[in-house]
Each structure stands twice: as C-alpha cells, then as structure tokens.
C-alpha cells in the first residue's frame, strides 16, 4: 500500500519526466506548481464536498450560509450583497436561496423602509446548522494541514497569495 501511495503522490513528477523525454525542448516547470496545486485542490474539494453533503447541504448553499453568518447579527444580506461576498456567483444566488429557504435554514424578509429590498436571513435552525458545519469544516481542514508546521502554513498562504496575484496579472495585456 505504501509504495502505491508514494507512486500516486509522485504522479506529477512522472508526468514531468515523461514530457522531458518526449519534448525536452519545453519548460515543464510550471507543472511542478500548478499540477500539484490542481491535484491538491481536487482532493481538498472531494473531502470538503463529502463533509458538507453529510449535512444535507451543497457547497454552494454552505457558502451562502457562511456569508450570512459572517455578516453578523441579524445575519441577513440582500441577494446582491451575497453575490458581492465573493464566494457566491450572482447567477446562482436565487436558486441557492430558494433551496435554503425550503430547508428552513433562511427566510426572506422585506426591508421595513423600502419594500423593494429583500433580505435573506438565517433562521435559528440555519444559525445552528452553519455553526456546527463550519466547526466541522475547520476540523477537517486542520486534519488536511496536519503535515505542515504553522510556519509552513504561513509560508504557503503567503506564496498562494502571490500566485493568485500572478495569475490575475497574467490576464493583463503585456506592456508595450
């Protein structure tokens, strides 16, 4: 089992070696970072999804609940504010809100001063659910990061911030 696990963990190195043999003219060094990041993300995503779905939630619904929870009392936001929270796309907000409302986790409320404004607010059940699921989520993430020291976690977090900025900058046209 250990040999298989080591071989699987080193799949990126094999891919890089294969490309070096087949196309030695290409610089495959980006794969050392991005292929490993992609494989790590897929494993993380699988574990995250399984953990959240055990509670009858989708990841998208969980994102809405956590955005409402982070907003603080009275734990309510408009659909636009939810979309602006950065984790929820505006296209899917209404669908997610509908499902969460059906499950009794949120309610819609009209603004007393302007009836055109509609808030989504956590119910008591929604608050208890998000608090329990988020605590479990953090425990799950702690287990996934257990092989890293606190200093290594900080270093990776810093480097991932730089990576995200680099990826965003790659969308900009080159300077002439």
Break the fold down into its secondary structure elements and pairings.
Elements: H1 2-9, H2 11-22, H3 29-53, H4 59-70, E1 76-78, H5 79-84, H6 90-102, E2 106-110, E3 118-122, H7 124-144, H8 150-169
Antiparallel strand pairs: 1-3, 2-3
Helix pairs in contact: 3-7, 4-7
Give the beta-strand count.
Answer: 3
User: What value does the average pLDDT take?
Assistant: 90
Q: Helix count, per DSSP?
A: 8
| Portion in beta strands | 5-15%
- Main sheet record: 3 strands, antiparallel
Helix/strand class: mainly alpha
H/E element string? HHHHEHHEEHH
Going across the major beta sheet, what is the strand order? 1-3-2
Low-confidence segments, given as residue ranges, are: none
Shape: elongated
| Portion of residues within helices | 55-70%
What is the rounded Rg?
Answer: 21 Å
Model description:
With 176 residues, the chain is mainly alpha-helical. 66% of the residues lie in helices and 7% in strands. The chain contains 8 helices and 3 strands. It has helices at residues 2-9, 11-22, 29-53, 59-70, 79-84, 90-102, 124-144, 150-169, and strands spanning 76-78, 106-110, 118-122. Strands 1-3-2 form a 3-stranded antiparallel sheet. It is elongated and about 65 Å long. The protein starts with a helix and ends in a 7-residue tail after the last helix. 14% of the residues are buried. The model has no long low-confidence stretch (mean pLDDT 90).
């Amino acid at each position: 089992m250990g040999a298989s696990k080591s071989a699987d963990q080193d799949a990126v190195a094999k891919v890089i070696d294969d490309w070096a043999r087949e196309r030695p003219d290409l610089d495959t060094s980006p794969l050392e970072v991005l292929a490993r990041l992609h494989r790590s993300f897929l494993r993380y995503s699988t574990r995250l999804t399984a953990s959240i779905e055990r509670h009858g939630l989708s990841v998208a619904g969980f994102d809405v609940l956590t955005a409402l929870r982070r907003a603080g009392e009275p734990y309510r936001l408009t659909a636009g504010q939810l979309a602006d929270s950065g984790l929820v796309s505006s296209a899917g907000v209404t669908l997610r809100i509908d499902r969460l409302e059906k499950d009794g986790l949120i309610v819609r409320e009209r603004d007393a001063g302007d009836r055109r404004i509609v808030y989504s607010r956590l119910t008591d059940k929604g608050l208890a659910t998000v608090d329990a699921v988020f605590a479990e989520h953090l425990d799950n993430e702690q287990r996934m990061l257990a092989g890293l020291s606190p200093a290594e976690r900080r270093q990776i977090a810093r480097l991932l911030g730089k990576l995200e900025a680099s990826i965003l900058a790659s969308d900009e046209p080159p300077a002439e």
